[in-house]
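User: two proteins, same treatment. go.

Assistant:
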Amino acid sequence: MTKRIAMFVWNYFTNDARVMRECMALQEADYQIDLIAILDPTDLALPQKEELTENFTVYRVKSTSPRFFTPFIKLGKYVKRHRASWLLLGFIFFMLFARYPVWLSLLVLLTVLLSLKKVRVIFRRGLILIRMVRLGCSKDYCIYQANDLNTLPQGVLCAKLFRRGRGLIYDSHEVQTSRTGYNSPLYGISEKIFLRFVDICIHENHTRAAYIEKRYGFYPRVVHNYPVLAKPETSTKIDLHQQLAIPKNEPILLYQGGIQIGRGLDKLIRAASLFDRGVVVLIGDGRIKADLEHQVSEAGLTKRIRFLPKVPLQELLHYTRNAYLGFQLLNNVCFNHYSASSNKLFEYIMSGVPVIGSDFPEIRQVIVREKVGLVVNSHDPKEIAAAVNQLLASPDLREEMHQNCLQAREIYNWKREKKVFLEIYAEIEDKYADKIKDE
């Protein structure tokens, strides 16, 4: 029987480095992977079906509502904006009710419900879930993998209900019960329920694994989020100094990643005015980017802080290697941040760039042990500035850390973690081999 795998992700799968590494490892090991993602309705160039390699295909399900619901959604939004129209609509419905009581009542109820934003969000997510499950049951998959909690229900429904007797792996990239924007106790309740159906749970480091053990009573497997071993210095260099018209004698102080709350970027901007020299470059996009650009403008730092949009994964390290140092300044706003290993930390190391990092367990462990940077209180702009100025004033120390990065990247890379990941799949395959073969 073909070793066919179905994976679920709750994103458009355009920049998901961890899942991409996992899928490529599986197809190299002769598995056939169908990855089920979401179709971005605003990106007309993004295909609904994309064959990345011979054994690795991406399917994207639509996130838009069926045409039948469109007029009700539009009417619901209109009614909410123009509350006076309730009177007119109420009168029309009253006149029609005598002739079509049941159907009219249902249509009125549907319109009222779809006028509420939360209902529209739940409705949209429900449609995506149904479409993912339908696609996940369309072929004879032997193993399912759910990436993060928002795809775990799909994995459970496919592997344990509709297909039955299939392996289910849950790869949690985040701490689902303590992360920014996920404050409802429902996340913890639902995760606890769905975990009963999971064969193997994966987390990205031992700090998070210990947290899961304390919360749920079992220790998950650990597959670190290390990048693929690369040596960007051997290929064509992207010259950020030239691209941004930065003088060659000005060091680039780089942040790359999501421009989001809790990444310490507001503190970084406040610290920038205290840097002895250098230009801060932020590569990435996110919800607070406009706010940060306004903060930079208000502080009169537009020449010292530059913004670039996110770049394709395959090009990112060529940008990174331009930096004198890199920032990973997660704030302690939730356990998810506090316990993070941070893939950006390892991307800096891969490019030979010393790191100014948060003094959190997993980040501190790597930076201090490998001597690849300095740890700071990421909530304190003065401490951030002091660390930056220390490296700016000590080229020899910076060079020593650069060389340490080049050595450390031989340790912190996907080649080692890939073996652990594939062993998990081999274990699941052995567990269900007889049943799958019989069917």
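Protein 2:
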Amino acid sequence: MENTWKQVDQFLERKTQKRDTDLQHILENNRTQGLPSIDVSPNLASFLHTLATIKGAKRILEIGTLGGYSTIWLAKAVQPVAGTVTTLEIDPHHAEVAKQNLQSTGLSELVEIKVGSAHHSLKEMIALHSEPFDFIFIDADKESSVAYFQAALQLSKSGTVIVTDNVVRKGEVVNENSDDKSVRGVRDLFDYIENLENVSSSALQTVGSKGYDGFCVSVVE
């Protein structure tokens, strides 16, 4: 089945996305630079772009940059409205690769890369009373999922969309006895959002070139 998932992903990508040699180069450059192959899939990246465009987002926050592949898709979403993307990355090498990739696509001026602990960067933005974001994408270490989501809420306003990636973990999210820190992190996240009164959430399972996983979309009321 995994081969079928990949074929369907490729078919959907070919039929629904305009070919962009710059974006293909990004993934190739990330591999050449030794980054782990954990970029979001092209179809999910396109979906994030679509969500941000539907939202009309002018200010986007991304937690977890890697080589900037999803960052570039998000930057393309805010480009028509002269918006901005703030992205957080703990690894200096990853941040440097992302910077190179952004420069190659001409989107550098729309993106601020904050290098260092996301926890520190988020606390700093909250302390400085940063202007709320319209759209937030969480794609960093899963054991910190609750902390990232709580910080995202403090940087949100009514109508803010929060997307959290990799929340199904090959189905392990239902394993209450799992000792995997990432699984426990996303289970804690679902326990947390279950009881939030001012947030509406919907989660979906996905299959494709990245295997079996899923994401959660939340809207602040």
